[in-house]
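Reader question, answered in our methods column.
A reader sent in the components of a multi-part assembly and asked whether the whole thing could be modeled at once rather than chain by chain. We filled in our standard form and ran it. Here is what they sent:
COMPLEX SIZE: two components
ENTRIES:
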Amino acid sequence: GQNIDQPTEMTATEGAIVQINCTYQTSGFNGLFWYQQHAGEAPTFLSYNVLDGLEEKGRFSSFLSRSKGYSYLLLKELQMKDSASYLCAVPSGGSYIPTFGRGTSLIVHP
Amino acid sequence: DGGITQSPKYLFRKEGQNVTLSCEQNLNHDAMYWYRQDPGQGLRLIYYSQIVNDFQKGDIAEGYSVSREKKESFPLTVTSAQKNPTAFYLCASRDRGTSEKLFFGSGTQLSVL
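And here is the structure of the entire assembly that came back:
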């Protein structure tokens, strides 16, 4: 089975930097996804890490350590529109069926 | 434009009634998925299909049924056996050959009258 853990809620100030952590336990590893979901809308793809290290995409970066079963999503220069839920997902070995964490609700204050 | 379409956006079910949620994609993706999302919880897998005419139960399949008669379509029926159907339902698809990421529809909010 799989176990994915991420904080329930985080708050931050506009313009600041925030790091959202995700720890996972899985049998067989096929990469780790981060999705962003605004309330009542579909999740949208942010990043996919399959190798260790940091991948940067504009204001968003994602880090993976396979040996530690750990990832984080780093959001820089926060904007009000970044207020959303951030979902960590790990496909199970073999079938590639994504299992999602509970999501971290990020609230950005002015 | 290619995409994945869910309908309706909002759906109300009376007690004892079966309702069907539509999911259509024109992305030519082989794999399709149904997830349920409750407040404060992540997405939980109901059913998935890797190819036409084949589908498998996910973690919470009881009270639900699906069909996959066409590549483009993967409808979900919420039966009267599902005693707590109120949730946000998300359909997703994936191109098994080229990408691991999921493309999601805009979701259907199902409520019980």
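What stands out: Chain B has a mean pLDDT of 92. Chain B touches chain A through 23 residues (CB under 8 Å).
Send us your own complexes using the same form.
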